[in-house]
Design goal:
The protein is an alpha+beta fold. The protein contains 13 helices and 6 strands. The chain has a 4-stranded antiparallel beta sheet with strand order 3-4-5-6. The protein has a two-stranded parallel ribbon with strand order 1-2.
């Protein structure tokens, strides 16, 4: 039997209520999605993969409540969608390891970081000055730090564990930094330099770079190049350019594949290798179309 397709009017009506967190509305929607069956599941899965972050997170909540959710399939769908938004991608990626992830709690913690930074932010501050405030909040007040001792622990790459344990690796700490910065309207960018990961600020007078793994140390382009040379790489101007979200998430998956392999967790290592391959294949199909 074919799944009944919802009309545009039905989809719009459901979408308008998705982010309503009142108990009555949620109960009514849960009953409605249960009644719709496969049609409701398909609508929620499509919305969860869509570009609207608020709607995607709400749809994810209903999928989990209704036991419609398949975290691995959802992340594969996100990869194939080409609608790459960093926060949604990181949350979906984390759910492939922790299906019971409390998305609301993760977002609330990021909101709390941003709220604290907003209170301390001077008026008309430059991007660099705002970054210094964010450094104070994340690394001094809340104690985020690089996990130098257990670098290859897979938990260092999962955002809920990074927030709970306050430790991570360069890319995961940079992601936390970016998600908080975006809440503040601070337009920073991910920068995946060879052998490391940074956050970039592109001011008219010249770029600067933030090393979230080392307590938010602010670096000049020349200092970044020197670090690249120290890792036996030849620096290129392109190394300082922003890294697309697709590449950021693929790099997280690659790290997890390697770190799970080091921990003799072959199942998760294979899974994340498959995700990397899926990112590559999807990009190649899109580029050649």
């Amino acid at each position: 039997m074919e799944t009944r397709m919802l009309t545009t009017a039905e989809k719009d009506a459901l979408a308008a209520l998705l982010d309503d967190e009142s108990a009555g509305t949620r109960r009514a929607l849960l009953a409605q999605f249960q009644h719709l069956g496969d049609a409701g599941r398909v609508f929620l899965q499509e919305t969860a993969r869509g570009p609207n972050r608020v709607a995607a997170l709400a749809a994810g909540w209903y999928l989990r409540e209704l036991k419609f959710s398949d975290p691995v399939a959802e992340f594969r769908g996100f990869i194939q969608s080409l609608n790459y938004e960093l926060e949604t991608g990181v949350l979906l990626l984390t759910r492939t390891v922790n299906p019971s992830l409390d998305v609301t709690a993760v977002c609330a913690q990021l909101d709390a970081f941003a709220a604290r930074a907003r209170k301390l932010m001077p008026r008309a501050a430059t991007m660099r000055a705002q970054a210094r405030v964010l450094n104070r909040v994340l690394f001094e007040e809340f104690g985020l730090r690089g996990n130098h001792l257990h670098y290859t622990d897979p938990k260092n790459s999962l955002i809920d564990q990074v927030l709970e344990r306050r430790v991570g690796i360069p890319i995961s700490l940079s992601i936390v930094y970016l998600l908080v910065a975006h809440r503040l309207g601070l337009e920073l960018e991910p920068v995946g330099v060879p052998g490391h990961f940074l956050v970039g600020g592109y001011e008219p007078e010249g770029p600067f770079f933030i090393d979230a793994f080392n307590a938010g140390l602010i670096l000049s382009p020349e200092e970044v190049f020197e670090r690249i040379r120290s890792l036996q790489h030849t620096p290129q101007l392109a190394d300082l350019a922003p890294t697309p979200v697709r590449e950021v998430l693929s790099r997280v998956c690659r790290n997890l594949a390697n770190h799970y392999a080091a921990a003799d967790d072959d199942a998760h290592a294979r899974l994340f290798h498959e995700f990397v391959s899926e990112f590559d294949a999807t990009y190649e199909r899109h580029a050649s179309s």
